[in-house]
Amino acid sequence: MGCRDVHAATVLAFLSGTASVAGLLAAVLLPNWRQMRLYTFNKNERNVTVYTGLWIKCARFDGSRDCVIYDPQWYTAVDQLDLRVLQFALPLSMATAVSALFLCLIGMCNTAFVSSVPNVKLARCLVNSAGCHLVAGLLFLLACAICLTPSVWVIFYNSYLNRKYEPVFSFDVSVFIAIASAGGLFFTSIMLFLWYCACKSSPSPFWQPLYPHAPSMHSYTAQPYSARSRLSAIEIDIPVVTHAS
After folding, report:
1. What's the pLDDT score for residue 213?
2. Do residues 103 and 136 touch, judged by C-beta distance below 8 A?
3. TM spans, by residue (predicted)?
4. How far is CA 194 from CA 3, 4, 29, 136, in A?
5. H or E element that contains 141
6. Residue 64 covered by a domain
7. 67 is a domain residue
8. What is the percent of the chain with per-residue pLDDT over 70, rounded to a whole number?
């Protein structure tokens, strides 16, 4: 299969990147980054679990799904450093991944629909499909680093809170979703890099990140006429005069 064909690797990378962005969106919106479980020794009362997210905080009694305390303004008063960092890191990671998806889609459309010879006037400033996939892979890798680092830090910061206060803190499902999404972004970048390395061995200019010159511009050298050709042309141009006997 040629480099210009839409490989299964690029399609799989696009689907993986889309699923990873969806996972990041779920991790951002869910109020399940940290749990704080409060125990009571009064038999007439129930234990309370406080669910802390990036934007809201919810307190529930054991066995109930309703929030007895719901704080929608929690994002303005976050007092935990790891969650404050995640408020900026995860949206930035999502924006970077969406930009990479857009570039990946451009590259796929370019390989599927572009003509075999680029436009001469635009060849010097266009980025071809392989260049789009290469830049998209770098952006996916950057989005993975931005997402993974603060998400893993939540685990260590949770241990710090348990040592500083009481062992009532535990990280919740959003941490696993964010880490899995970061793994999906890393897998996507690897797939795009493998596609680029596979196309690099192709003799076609379409694997190159930038066109160094217009592929359709060639230098033609005028072939010299032979002596016989020049003589023939002269003989044709000279009128033939005949004398009457």
Report:
1. 46
2. yes
3. 6-30, 88-114, 134-156, 168-196
4. 12, 15, 33, 13
5. helix 129-164
6. no
7. no
8. 69
In a domain, 236, yes or no: no
Token output for 213: 């010159």
Helices 173-200 and 81-113: angle between axes, nearest 10 degrees? 30
Minimal CA–CA distance to 157: which of 86, 69, 94, 74?
A: 86
Q: What is the pTM of this model?
A: 0.73
Question: Does residue 40 fall inside a structural domain?
Answer: no
pLDDT digits (tens, 9 = 90+) for 68-78: 787 787 778 78
Lowest-confidence range among 46-55, 97-106, 117-126? 117-126
- Euclidean distance between CA atoms 24 and 20, whole angstroms: 6
Pairing outcome for strands 169-171 and 48-52: unpaired
Number of domains in the chain: 1
Structural domain range at position 190: 8-31+78-199
Cα–Cα distance for residue pair 48/60, rounded to 1 Å? 6
